Amino acid sequence: MASILYFLVLSLSCSFLFSLSESNYVMNPAYLLVLPTQKDASTGLHWTNLLKRTPLTQVPVLVDLNGNQVWLNCEQHYSSKTYEAPFCHSAQCFRANTNQCLSCPAASRPGCHKNTCGLMSTNPVTQQNGLGELGQDVLAIHISLGTQLGELFTVPQFLFSCAPSFLLQKGLPRNIEGVAGLGHAPISLPNQLASHFGLQRQFTTCLSRYSSSSKGAIIFGDAPNNLREFHGHAIFHDLAYTPLTITPQGEYNVRVNSIRINQYSVTPVSKISSTTVGHSGGTMISTSTPHMVLQQSLYMSFVQVFAQQLPKQAQVKAVAPFELCFHSKNISEYPSVELVMEKPNGPVWRISGEDLTVQTQPGVSCLAVVNGGMQPSAEITIGARQLEENLVVFDLAKSRVGFSTSPLSSLGVKCGDLFNFVNA
């Protein structure tokens, strides 16, 4: 009898320790988690393949820097042996910050169960919302030591939203099945990975500009200290940091004090902020907006100063949605833009002319900055184009954003060079 009791106690103890180690897994801090990304040529937005379900399946999703969670369409083609729908008011629902109960009247399937949690999902391009079911399933991601990709590590019970399929109908690249939210919310992709693997709450984006020839990367963990050199280049050597704030909507914001174009000042952002009703004065960083967007008064001043730096005879008829276009052959170099961060003499985020222009027709390039109207969500939105071919570090633990003061191209490096994604 004593031996049987000892066996039961030993078994329960082992089970408890296994459960404890599973929920508090601590990865070697030198390791990073790496997610390959690609640029969609038609929209200018970036997407990735998430490895989810059982058996593991590639699921193409849009990269949304400000998204609250991963959401997927479960109404079509979602098949998995490990999908579960947490009961309403469960610990999982509490973690997802939802107390809404949901019951689906149809036959049970992923995204349709009784007495589950309801979770709102958003198409970040159209801003359309839809209510879906909180689900959990396996997610796998590549581990890396340096620039070499290693094995797949899994999160067995990754929380996400089964969103309604109508959210996929507009604004997204073709064949996209959902959104990978990288925002500040508790069940966003970076927060779940950091929690599960014991990583530092930090991720780095290096988005590729080249839609068909190379892959960029989102790197989870302390990349500046663990990916210091690439082929002899100290790729993080010139990082500058500025405070990161979170809006009530969960968006990543920084503070831009002023803008300079070839050292000529544009209207200070503080003046726009103080005279425009309903504005926070912040600058949003977004991957769901392909180009920079400026509040109308700031936009008009920006375009005027930019145009003054180029030959007037080079200007041609505008190509919508852009309002300032040029004959490319008549321009040897476009003016560079400097965003002066936080305070008058704060760190400077330099944006090259290449990062602010786009070829719209053969021989015609346009200033890829869009008029956001009088009441945009932020005075300035730094879009995906401005993030491309740059290392941008989102340090959530220290509430700061790090950015390269010079582009990777100055070192002869592209985002597509950092990792070998042949087998990813």
UniProtKB/TrEMBL annotation:
SUPFAM superfamilies: Acid proteases
Sequence similarity: Belongs to the peptidase A1 family.
GO molecular function, one term: nutrient reservoir activity
Keywords: Disulfide bond, Seed storage protein, Signal, Storage protein
Signal peptide start-end: 1-23
GO biological process, any: proteolysis
Domain Peptidase A1, chain residue ranges per copy: 46-404
Gene3D superfamilies: Acid Proteases
Signal as UniProt keyword: yes
Free-text function comment from the UniProt entry: Seed storage protein. Has a protein kinase activity. Binds leginsulin.
UniProt-listed InterPro entries: Aspartic_peptidase_A1, PEPTIDASE_A1, Peptidase_aspartic_dom_sf, TAXi_C, TAXi_N, Xylanase_inhibitor_I-like
Identification of the protein by name: SBg7S
PANTHER family (UniProt xref): ASPARTYL PROTEASE-RELATED, BASIC 7S GLOBULIN
SUBUNIT field: The mature protein consists of high- and low-kDa subunits linked by disulfide bonds.
Species assigned in the record: Phaseolus angularis (Azuki bean)
Entry superkingdom: Eukaryota
One protein family per Pfam: TAXi_C
